Amino acid sequence: MAKVVVALGGSLLRPEVKDRHNWLLELVSILRDRVSSGDRIALVVGGGAPAREGIELARPIIGDISHLDRIGIAATRLNATIVREALSDEGIEVSGNIPESVEEAASELGYFDVVVMGGTVPGHTTDAVAISLAIEVGAMKCIIATNVSNVYSEDPKSNPGAKAFDDLTLNQLQEIVGPPKHGGAGGSQVVDPVGVGNAVANGLALDILDGRKTERIRGSLEGLEFDGTKVRG
Ligand code: UTP
Description:
CATH architecture: 3-Layer(aba) Sandwich
Order of helices and strands: EHEHHHEHEEEEHHEHE
Number of strands: 9
Strand order of the largest sheet: 3-2-1-4-8-9-7
Radius of gyration: 16 Å
Largest sheet: 7 strands, mixed
Strand content: 15-25%
Distance between the termini: 23 Å
CATH superfamily: Acetylglutamate kinase-like
Bound molecules: uridine 5'-triphosphate
Number of domains: 1
Shape: globular
Helix content: 40-55%
CATH topology: Carbamate kinase
Structural class: alpha/beta
Low-confidence stretches: none
Number of helices: 8
């Protein structure tokens, strides 16, 4: 039985994602297929719009970053609940609660085909949670489903000449995202540098891809070629 962890960026649930209801149904169908092939899958859902909006509302009046992080965590759990209910409604064997720690999620994965969670504690993002969970359960890899096609040498929005990578080593990825420090509540990087630090330390394989294209999530879960960035030790 293969275990895989998928970090689903919160931006994937936003109205800008073309036909997001269909996106959710396709995700359900992919998970159903993987589960019937014997996989156990953990989804770690990001905070997206409600996290950004909540943090921006509170930022001018709350000085302590960890308190802003807690607002972000609440948003990730709201989004995780949406995904959990969608899976459950479609008949997937998914854990009943939204686990609040990596240990709790790891234990639930012993009983259910699918576990859905959001954030845990202040100081990192859900990418880092997904990577810790993948290490904890001995997953074969962690998929980071985000809203860009690849990891780039620089931010492609500000530098159109930035190079898209198909393959990277974990150390190269750490160089690109910077040292493993928390960038502050609501900060956005292609992958959380804190999580990358943990992946480097544990030699965890990462597949980073555009989660809006569900066939890429499917390809990565099935161990096939997919468009995106493959990061190995
Ligand atoms: P996200 O995981 O959504 O991070 O958590 P992100 O990279 O800002 O956004 P996406 O992935 O593009 O949607 C939102 C915020 O919640 C807090 C952090 O402040 C983070 O920026 N958070 C989340 C934590 O402090 N701990 C967690 O375990 C998860």
